[in-house]
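re: ur question from the group chat, yeah i did fold both. here u go
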Amino acid sequence: RVWIIDMDSFPSSNVTDDSTRFELLFEFFLRCWQNDFVRRGSIKSLLIDQFSNLIALWQLLISVYLVDQVLTQPPSAHTGDGRLMKLSVQFGLAHALPVMLANWLQRQKPWFGVGGALRKELQVNLLRKYLNYAEASRKKIGTAGFIQALNRDVIEVIDNGYLHLFTLVRSASHICILLVWISLRSPIIAPFLLLMLLVNSFRMVWREKGATVLRLKLFKAQNNMMGHADDVARTFNLVRDFRCRPEQTD
């Protein structure tokens, strides 16, 4: 009698053999989001990234005001009562203080433990899954394949997958802010920038397919190398004894 206690597939039951890479990645993001600790850390990281975008907008507004309102005035308007020195200090503080705060917040992001918590969860689950396999299944996978999944693949999907979601959201928000700003200041340039953004997006998607094929070839070569090293390590005594066979025969 076999008692099946878990019918769900990883990362969710919505993933099938016909699912695309982007669908699989989206379901994996949702799976990571179900972890309460990871969700809280992810929300904090996203808010910090948006704060950096707001600081960039603030610096842009200050620069525009400096060029349009201050530098266009005659020099005699800034010479009395140390006005030029006061303006320099004010604009310097307005630029530097928000950047210092943003850099300090960015340094706090690793302490949220989002990447470490996800890597630990996946590695523990992989280890539990591997130990629950039968002996024949473990031999079919091999020790080398298990080590590669535990070290390389987990880091690949977390560090180069989920954690890059924050960078993607921050960059997309920054681009949207610039598009809105340019649309308000110079509406005639906005369509050209939008067209350039669409062209670069299609180019990135097209290059992603070729990069994925190359990475899969690299992973296959690494798996073959690790499997060969594992075979040599396991059969070393047998090979050594076989080479000593003539001496033993004599």
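okk and heres the other one u asked abt
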Amino acid sequence: MITLENNDLIIPFPEVHREAVARISFQRTLRIPDDGHDYPLPPGFGDFPLLHVEDYANRLPEKWRKRGGVFMPMYQSEALWMSFSSHGDYPIALQIAAGKINAVNGEPWQEDMQFDPQGYVVTTGQPWLDGFCIEKGRIRQFVAAPLGRGETVEEQLTGDAEFGGIQIKAWPLKP
């Protein structure tokens, strides 16, 4: 069962191994201009708070209530990067998407693990993901954008604003 602990998303696999647990934190940072120039890594400002949708159901859109999960309050002037770890260095593969567009390879979301092109990160080999890879050595930050204005990755690639948000799928690997 996925849980929240100190603003971290905890994804355990007790049926596989007691150390097969992924921990994901969402780190607040500055939004850099999307103007084609290169910028140094912006400073970090700590964890974004993660909140259960069901705890705020009467104040959230119906679509959110149906989907469930967690959410984080985020200003459009902010960006985020994700930090990954696992207990005892047990490797967990993570597929990360925004608006059901895979952040690692830019392809549409698939339920199965994507190997070619690789569509996942492994917690023991990659401690963070700071955005979408748009080409070798270049990324676009994870930012908040309103659905329906053509600003999200999902809308730019599919022309539709159906999903939004961040999607994560995890698989325990062999240590």
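fwiw on the second one: The chain has a mean pLDDT of 88. The helical segments are 62-67, 153-158. idk if thats what u expected
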